[in-house]
Amino acid sequence: MGQCIRHPMTWEELEEYQALTFLTRNEILCIHDTFCKLCPRGKYYKEATLTMDQISSLPALRQVNPFRDRICRVFSHDDVFSFEDVLGMASVFSAQACPSLKIEYAFRIYADINENGFIDEDDLQCIIQRLLNTTDVGDDLLKNLTKHILGESDLDNDHMLSFAEFEHAMSKSPDFMNSFRIHSWGL
Amino acid sequence: MKSSKLSRRYASIKRDASQLYPYKEPLQFSNLDDSDNNDERGDSNDPEQIFQNIQFQKDLMATIRCRPWPMKEKLKALRRAKEIVLKFEGRLTRTRGYQAAGADLWRKFVRLAYNFVVIFIPWEMRIKKIESHFGSGVASYFIFLRWLFGINIVLTIMTGAFIVLPELIAGQPFGSTISKTIPKDHVASAQDLDTVWSLGGYLKYSVLFYGYYGKERKIGKAGYRLPLAYFLVGMAVFVYSFIILLKKMAKNSRMSLASASNENYTFCWRVFCAWDYLIGNPEAAESKAAAIVNSIREAILEEQEKKKSKNLAVTICLRIIANILVLLSLAGSIYLIYFVVDRSQKLERTKEELTLWEKNEVSVVVSLITMIAPSAFELVAALEMYHPRTTLRFQLARVLVLYLGNLYSLIIALLDKVNSMSITEAEVKNNASNWVDFPHFLPTRALPEEEKWPPTIPDIQGKQNSTFQNYLIPTTITNKSNSYNYNVQNQQDQCWETYVGQEMLKLSIIDMIFTVASILLIDFFRGLFVRYLSDCWCWDLESKFPEYGEFKIAENVLHLVYNQGMIWMGAFFSPCLPAFNVLKLIGLMYLRSWAVLTCNVPHQQVFRASRSNNFYLAMLLFMLFLCMLPTIFAIARYKPSLNCGPFSGQEKIYDIVSETIKNDFPLWFNSVIGYISSPVVILPALLLLFMLIYYLQSIARSLKFTNSQLRMQIQSDRSEDKKKVAQMIEARTQTQEGNKKKPQESDFVNQQALTHSLTPRKNGNVVSFDSPGSRIPTISQALPQTKISTPVEITSPIIGISKAQSEHINNRYPYFTHENDHCKIKSCTPVTFKKHLEDIYSEPLFQKGIRQMKPDVVGSGAPRFAGGRTPRYYIVNERESRRKPRSTLRSPKYFHRDNLGDFGEIYSRNKRGYVLSKPHHAYSPHLSDEEEEEELRKDIFNRSFRPRSLSDLHQTPHFYIGEGTESQVLPTEDLSRMHYQSWNSGFEVDHYQPVYLYKKPRLQNFDPEPRYPEHFMKPKTKQKIEPSFIESDSVSASSSDQQNSSTDQYIQVIHNKEKYLKSAGKLSKKKSKSRLELTIADPSELIYSNV
Which stretches make up the EF-hand domain (chain A) (predicted)? Predict the structure, then answer.
C-alpha cells in the first residue's frame, strides 16, 4: 500500500466538496485518508485512481454486499475510481442524502444487470439470487416473486420496471432510506 | 431533518425549474459568468432577467448535492454558479452583493457548526459500527437509547440546576434541622453496608430524596423560592417529556406520511429494500440472507393465505388457552408484587432488624418478574401459532402490560403504605396535640375536616405558618421527654415521599443490576460456553440448543421504556433519579454495545423498526402518561408529610402555587387568577378546545377525502397512459416496416466501423478526459492518430471513434449519463469540433433541449405539461421540424446517413429508452446527434417531472413517428438561415484547411460535407489570426476561448430569438464560431446569426 503525496486538501476544496456532497468535513477527510492509503505511491490524490477491485475490497463492500460489483460499476468512471468518484459514492450512501438521489442511484444499481435501462424479469431474478446468496433458488419462488413484484409496481404492464415506477414504489417504503446507507469508508 | 428539508426544497425547485428551464439548464446558464462584456447581450441589463438567473444559480447551489451528476460536473457547475452569483449580484445592487456575501458567510458558518456538532453526537461511531455489523434494526435500539439519554440529560439539568444545587448552596446545612439529621439511634448503623445498600443512613438524609429539602419559603440571600421551584420543576419534568415526545412523534409521522397510504408495495420493498447496505459483517450478512428468504416466503404464503381462510378449532382452542395462561401469569405477577409490598410493610412494623433480603425483596421480586415473565410469554406464544409478526405484536403488548402492571401494583402498594403511614401520623399528631393548641392543630388535618369548621377558625390560611412554629416550638421545649423522642423518630421515619423515592431508586438500581447480570449470564457466558465447548460437546452447540444469544430488539426497547417509566414515576420524590438514570443509560450503552458486538447474533425475526416508526415512541408516550398519573394522584390526593420536605405543613403540595400567588404577586394579579380559575372562564375554554378539536378533525377528514380523490385521478390517468402506450406501439410497428428496407447500407457501414474501431478507441479514451490538465496531452495524442487515418477511410473511422467512445461511455455509466454521451458523440460527429470541447458544447445542447420545449408547447396551443406526459408528443413535432432543414439542405449523402439513422432507430426501438448507451448508436452520426437531443429532452423530462408515468418509457416511439414524417415538412426560415450561414462559413474557411490538414481527415471521416469541417476549423482560424494564441495547437486555450464566446453567443440567442431555439444547440456552436469570425471578417454573418 503506497501513500500518495500527502497533499492536504485546501480549505476551498473541502468547502466545495462539502457543498457538493452530503458528507461532513471529517467524513471527507476520512475518505481522503482511505483513498491515499490505497492509491499508488507518489501520486497527487486528484490524479490517482483506484481500481474496482480495490474499492470492492473496502470493508464497507467486502465480501458481504451482494451488489458490490454493481455499485462499483455505477460509481466508477472508465472502470476506475477517482477521488471524486469515491466521494460521490459516499455521498449517495450517506445518511443525509436526499431520497430522490438515493432512489436514482438505487435504480442504477438494480436496473442494469443486463444493461437495458429497465428492471425486467431477468434483472429481478438476478437481484433475488444475489440477495439470497445462492443460485439455486426454487424456480417457483423466483417466478412467483417476480410475478408479484411486477404485479404490484409495473403500472404499464410491459413486464419491466422503469425508473418512474421504481421511484414511485420506493419513495413510499419506510425502510429504504434506512437500508440504503453505508457509513464507514475507512479501512 | 436537514436532509428532509433539503429534499423538500429540492423538490420545489425542481418543479420551478421544470417549468422554466428543465433539467440541464444550470450548466449553460452558468456560462453566463464567463462573458463579461455586457454590451453583447442586449437585454442582459434587464434586472429581472439577471435576478431570475441569480435566483436559479442560487437554487442550483442549494440543491446541487441532490443532483445525480458525476462529481466533476457538479464541481464545474458549482464554481460557475458561484462566480455568476457573485458577479451579477454585485452588479445588480450593492446591497444585494453584500447580502450575497453575508449569505455565503452564513452558509459557511452553518456548515462549520454542523461539522462541529457532529463531533459531539455521543456514540456516533459506536452506533455506526453496530449498524455496519448488524444493520439498522439493532442500531435503532441504540439510537433510541441515545435519544432517551438526551431527554434524561435535560431532566437532570432541570432538577440539578433548580433544585439540587440551590439546596446544596443556599439551603440549611446537613444536621441543622431535624429533617436533615440522622436520628441518634440510627447514627451507629448509618454507614453499614446494608443500610447504605437499602438507601438508608446518610443517603436517606441527603439531596437524593424529597425529605431533605428545607421548607423555608426563601433560601439564601437572593431569596430563592425552593419549595416553589421544587413543585414547578416536578411538573416541568412531565411537561417537557410530553412536549419532546409529541414533537418527535409528529416529526416521524410527517416523515412516514407517504408510507401511510393504502398503496402497498410489499414485494417490491421486500426485494429492493431487503438488503441493508450497512451490513459489513459476513455473519450478519448470512443471517440477513436467511431473514430475506423467510420474509419473501412469508410474503408469498401470506398472499396465498389471504385468499383462503382456514379456521381450525385446534388453533382457536390453543389460542384461548394461551391467552388464559398469559392473563393468569399477569394476575399472578401483580398479586405477587402486591403481596411482597404488603409483607415488607408488616415486617417493617413488627421487626426491629430487617435482613438484607427483607429490605430488598420488593425490588428484587419486581425485577425478577420483569425478567422472567417475557420469556414465559414467549413460550406461551409458541402455542398460538400466529404469524411471526403477529406473534411479535402480541408479545410486545403483553410485555408492556406486564411492565405497567408491575409498576402500578408497586405504586399502589406503596400508596397504600402511605395511607397507613398517614394514619400513624395522625396518631402522632394526636400525641403532639398535647403541646399544641387545638385550633392550631386543626389546619394540619385533612381538608374535609377543615371545611367542617370554617366559621370557628376564620384566619386559618393566614395562620398556617405560625401554626407550624407553634407546633415545633413546644416540641423543642420538651426535648427531653421520651414521648418526644418517639415522636421525632416517627416523624422522621414517616416521610412517605422519601419512602416512595427510596423504593423507586432501589427498583432502578436493582433493575440495573439484573440487566447487567442478564447480559453477562445470558449473553456473554452463554456465548463463551457455546464458543469454546462446542468442539467437545455431543451436539452442535452453536446451531442447536443454547446457541448464541439473540439480540431481541423489541423486548430491549420495551425494557428501556419501562426503565424510563420508573424515572418519571419517581422523579418527583427523588430529584436525583434522572441523574442516576443518565449514569445508568451510559453504562447500559457501553455494556449493551459491547455485548452485541461480542456475543450476540441478530434476531431472526427482524423487527423492522425504522427511525420513522412511531411504535417505540407511542409506547413511551403511553408509559409517560400512565406513570404521570400516580404521581399526579399522590400530589393531588395526599397530604405532604409533616416534618420533612419542602411542602411540610401544607395541606396539599400544590398549595405552594396559590400561596405564592397570594402572597407575592400584586393584588390585581390575584384577582385575575381568581377569575381565570373560575368556571366562567374554564368552561368556555373547554368548549373552545372541543370546538377546535372538532374543526381539526373535520379538516383531516376532508384532506383524507381529497387524497382518495387524487388517487382515483392518478389511476384514471394511468389507464389513459396505457391507451397511449398501445397507440404508440401501433405507430411503431408501422414505421418499422417502412424503415426495414434500409438496414443493408447501414450494415455495411457498421462493418467498416468495426474494422476501424481499434485505433480510434485509444483516441476516444484519451479524449474522454475533460479536466483542464489533461487537455493538452489529449491533443498531442489525437494528432498522430488523425494523421494516420487517411482520407480513404472517409466514413468509417469516425464512426469507429464515436462507437468506441460511446462504448466507452457505456462502461462508465451503463445507463444514466446521456448528457455525457451526447456531448461526446456530438463532438465526434456533426459538430466535428474536437472532443475536448465537449463540455462546451454540452451546454448549448442542453439549452437547446430545454428551450425548445417552451415555444413548441405554446405554439401548438397545447395544455401545459400535465404530469409530464403530454409534452412528449410535442417533442415529436419538434423533431420533425428540426429535421426539415437538414433534409432540405443536406447533400445526397444525407440520405445515406439517414439510413444509418434509421438503422440506429430500429435498434433503439428494440432496446427501448436508453439506447444511447448502446454502441449501435454511434453508427449514425446524425442520428446520434438527434438522438442525443431526444435523450436530452427525455432527460429533462425525467428530471423535471418526477411523478411522470409510463409514457416516458416509450419515448423512442415518438421519435419514430417523427421520423416517419420528417422529410415532408418545410424548413422554417431561421433554421434554413442558420444552415446557410454555416454553409457559407464553411466554404469561406476552406482555405485554412490545408494548414490543419492533419485534423481534417478525421473531420471528413465524420462527415464529408464541407459544413462540418468548417465548424471544426474555425476556432483554429481564429487562433491563427489572433496573436494572443500563439501556441498553435494549444487547443485548451482555444477551447476555453471557445467556451467564452460560445456562451456569449448563446445568450444572445436566447434573448433575441426565443422561438428559434430549437436549433440553438447546433447554432450556438456555429455561432460561436461565427462570432470568432467576426474578428476575421464577416459582420454580416454575425447579423445573420443574431437576428
Answer: 102-171
Name, in order, each residue with C-beta under 8 angstroms of B638's C-beta and a sequence gap of 6 or more: B415, B418, B422, B496
Residue B195 or residue B317, greater confidence = B317
CA dist B720 to A156, B231, B716, B723, Å?
A: 10, 66, 6, 5
B382-397 pLDDT, tens digit each? 777 776 667 777 788 8
User: Minimal CA–CA distance to B1076: which of B1037, B1055, B1049?
Assistant: B1049
Query: Which CATH fold would you assign to the domain A99-180?
Result: Recoverin; domain 1 (1.10.238)
Does A11-93 carry CATH code 1.10.238.10? Answer: yes
Residue A69, all three cell numbers: 460489483
Grid cell 442558420 is found at: B978
Buried b vs exposed e over B439-473: b needs ≥16 C-beta within 10 Å?
Answer: ebbbbbeeeeebeeeeeeeeebeebbeebbeebbe
The radius of gyration computed from the CA coordinates of chain A, to the nearest angstrom, equals 18
The three cell numbers locating residue B638: 395526599
Question: Are A74 and B814 an interchain contact pair (Cβ–Cβ within 8 Å)?
Answer: yes
Q: Does A56 touch chain B (CB under 8 A)?
A: no
B549-551 vs B600-602, strand pairing mode: parallel
DSSP reduced 3-state for A49: strand
Residue B150, burial from CB neighbour count under 10 angstroms (0-12, 13-18, 19+): middle
Is residue B8 classed exposed, middle or buried when 0-12, 13-18 and 19+ CB atoms within 10 A define those classes?
A: exposed
What ipTM does this complex have?
Answer: 0.81
The DSSP secondary structure of B855-893, one letter per residue, reads HHHHHTTPPP-STTTTHHHHHHHHHHHHHHHHHHH--TH
Helix, coil or strand: residue B777: helix
| Residue B791: count of CB within 10 angstroms of its CB | 12
The predicted model scores a pTM of 0.58
How big is the CA angle at B31 (ends B107 and B1004), to the nearest 5 degrees? 145
Query: End-to-end alpha-carbon separation of chain B, Å?
Result: 50
Cβ distance of B275 and A67 shorter than 8 Å: yes
Rg (CA), chain B: 41
Residue A58, SS3 per DSSP = coil
Q: Which residues contact B966 (CB under 8 A, 6 or more apart)?
A: B879, B880, B883, B884, B887
Query: Of how many residues is chain A composed?
Result: 187
pLDDT, greater one: B968 or B550: B550
A1 touches chain B (CB under 8 A): no
Q: Looking at chain B from residue 126 to 165, which residues have their Cβ under 8 Å from any Cβ of chain A?
A: 128-129, 131-132, 135-136
Distance from CA of A158 to the nearest CA of B (A): 10
List chain A residues with CB under 8 Å of B67: 101
Say if residue B727's pLDDT is above 60: yes
Residue B191: CB atoms within 10 A of its CB come to 10
- With CA atoms as reference, report the closest residue to B745 among B894, B963, B899, B887: B899
Nearest to B633 by CA among B446, B451, B415: B415
**pLDDT(B790) > 50:** no
Judge residue B207's burial from the number of C-beta atoms within 10 Å of its C-beta, 0-12 exposed, 13-18 middle, 19 or more buried.
buried
User: Is B7 in contact with A116 (Cβ distance < 8 A)?
Assistant: no
Residue in A with minimal Cα distance to B260: A172
Q: How far apart are CA B356 and CA B600, in angstroms?
A: 34
CB contact A10 to B (< 8 Å) = no
Listed in order, strand segments (DSSP E) in A9-155 are 49-51, 80-82, 119-120
Instruction: State the angle between helix axes of B1011-1025 and B973-989 in degrees (0 to 180), rounded to the nearest 10.
Output: 60
Where in chain A are all domains bearing CATH 1.10.238.10? 11-93, 99-180
Measured distance CA(B438)–CA(B501) in Å, rounded: 33
Q: What is the largest CA-CA distance in chain A?
A: 57
Least confident of B9-13, B100-104, B446-450: B446-450
